[in-house]
Amino acid sequence: MKSLLRHFQGDIAIWILTFILSFVSLLAVYSASSNLAFVYRNGNVLAMVLKHAVMIVFGFGLMYVVHKLPYRYFSALSLIALPLALLLLVLTLAQGNSIGGANASRWLEIPYLGVSFQPSAFAMVSLMMYLARYLTRNNVREMTFSETLLYGIGPIVLVCILVLPANFSTAALIFVMSTILLFVGGYPVKNLLKLFGVGLVGLGLFILTVKAFPNISNRVDTWVSRVEAFTTGDADPSKNYQVQKAKMAIASGHLLGKGPGKSMQKNFLPQSNSDFIYAIIVEEYGLIFGGIITLLAYVIFFVRLMSLITKTKDSFGQLLALGAGMGILLQATINMGVAVNLFPVTGQTLPLVSAGGTSIWIAFFSIGVVLSVSKALQEDSESQEEAEPKAETPDENPLNPVLHEA
Question: Is the predicted pLDDT of residue 3 greater than 80, yes or no?
Answer without folding.
Answer: no
